[in-house]
Fold this sequence. Notes:
Helix 3 runs parallel beside helix 4 (about 105-130) and helix 4 (about 105-130) packs parallel to helix 5 (about 150-170). It is built from eight helices and seven strands. Strands 3-2-1-4-5-6-7 form a seven-stranded parallel beta sheet, sandwiched between helices. Helices cover about 50% and strands about 15% of the residues. The two termini are about 30 Å apart.
Amino acid sequence: MPTALVTGATQGLGRALAESLAVRGWDLVVTARDASRVAETVSDLRDHGHDVVGVTGDVSDAVHRDEVADAVIELAGPHGLDLLVHNASTLGPVPLRPLRELSSDELAAVLAVNVLAPHALTHSLLPSLEAAGGILIAISSDAGVEHYETWGAYGASKAALDHLTLTLAAELPALRAYAVDPGDMRTAMHQAAFPGQDISDRADPATVAPALLRLLDERPDSGRYRAADLLAALR
């Protein structure tokens, strides 16, 4: 069975993708910060009859990342890791504030989760990814290429994540690496960015997951992709 690691897998797009992979027969390592949600997710995914390992913790914690990497290597075995999805993310302090009101420590905390943690996990798991000829997916944002007021820390982190992901692709052409902008979705994080606003018009993450599956199925050239474009080709 192919094996995937999905971070931030208990909610939103991470959960939707993990469920889609489980239905397809993948073995999974899933991570998130809330222990009860990790346990619930693992139980639900195991209903599909495949190996699912949950590791609770914060991706910015080096000890947690080591535990995740160990779990992946044990589950994937010599075949290696077929898919690494960097989905765990943070907006930073909410309500979102202009950069002039953001401290260096607050910016560093955003970069620790959204940039440094994905780099560290990729570094640890790269031999396993290379063994399988695997795929790396980093969940990006339009804030990484546009300049929205109060989104500076988050946008800068996503721009950096895009750059790291696609530079790795240039350095290792045998792998496929994708930075994917999923668009606005109906998620807890998106709601936190717009407190008190009705976001029911945003896309259900379950309708966005097929865009990521298309990348797995077709393995196009490494690059930055918009989910909307990938989904349009499926219609």
